[in-house]
What we know:
This protein is mainly α. It folds into two domains: 5-45; 49-136, DNA polymerase, domain 1 (Orthogonal Bundle). The protein is 73% helix and 0% strand. It has five helices and no strands. The chain has helices at residues 5-41, 53-72, 82-102, 110-124, 139-170. Helix 2 (53-72) packs antiparallel against helix 3 (82-102) and helix 2 (53-72) runs parallel beside helix 4. One 2-acetamido-2-deoxy-beta-D-glucopyranose binds next to helix 2.
Amino acid sequence: MDKNAxxxxxxxxxxxxxxxxxxxxxxxxxxxxxxxxxxSSLDVRSRPVLCNETALLLEMQWCGDWFKRExxxxxxxxxxxxxxxxxxxxxxxxxxxDKAVSTGCYWPNPLVENYIIHVHRLFFSxxxxxxxxxxxxxxYMLTMLIFVPVFLTLAMVALVVWCSKxxxxxx
Length: 171
Ligand SMILES: *[C@@H]1O[C@H](CO)[C@@H](O)[C@H](O)[C@H]1NC(C)=O
Ligand SMILES: *[C@@H]1O[C@H](CO)[C@@H](O)[C@H](O)[C@H]1NC(C)=O
Ligand SMILES: *[C@@H]1O[C@H](CO)[C@@H](O)[C@H](O)[C@H]1NC(C)=O
Ligand SMILES: *[C@@H]1O[C@H](CO)[C@@H](O)[C@H](O)[C@H]1NC(C)=O
C-alpha cells in the first residue's frame, strides 16, 4: 500500500470538512440575504430601529414628571392607598411602555426598570407590605423580578457579541 495513503486520506477529510464549512457558510449567507430582503420588503414601521437611550431617558422623565405632579395632588397620608393612585400608576406604566417603543427600545428594559424603581422609592418607600401588596411584591421578590430579566438580557448580549467575535476570527 502507498505510504502516502494516510496523508491523502487526511487531506481528503480536511477538504471534506472545509467544503462542508464553506457550503454551510454560503447557505448561512444566503439565508441572511433572504432575511434582509424579507425585512426590507416589510413595512418601514416594523423595521427594527436602534434604541435611542438618550431620547428614552428624556421621554421617561416626561412620564415621571407627570406622575410626580399627579401624586403631589394626593395628600401624602394616602400615598400607600392603592385606590388613590392606581389609575395614575397605570397611566405612568403605559406611558413608559409607549415611550420605550417609540424610541425603538424594548419594553421592559433595564433603563426603564431603573427609572421605575427610582419613582417607587420616591413615593412608596414608606408603604408597608399589607398596604400595597397588589402593587409591590416583597423586596427580595422585586429584586428577583428585576434582576433575572436584566441578567438574562446581558447574558444574551454577551453571547451574541462573543459569537460574532468568533465569527470574525473564523472568516
Ligand atoms: C437620540 O435622541 C436625542 C434626543 O432626542 C437626539 O438629539 C439624538 O440625535 C438621537 N440620536 C440618534 C442616533 O437618533
Ligand atoms: C383607601 O381609600 C379608600 C377610599 O378613600 C378607603 O375606602 C379605604 O379604606 C382606604 N384603604 C386603606 C387601606 O387605607
Ligand atoms: C395605553 O395608551 C394607549 C394609547 O396611548 C391606549 O390605547 C391604551 O388603551 C392604554 N392602555 C392602558 C392600559 O391604559
Ligand atoms: C417616609 O418617612 C420619612 C420619615 O417619616 C419622611 O421624611 C419621608 O418624607 C417619607 N417618604 C414618603 C415617600 O412618604
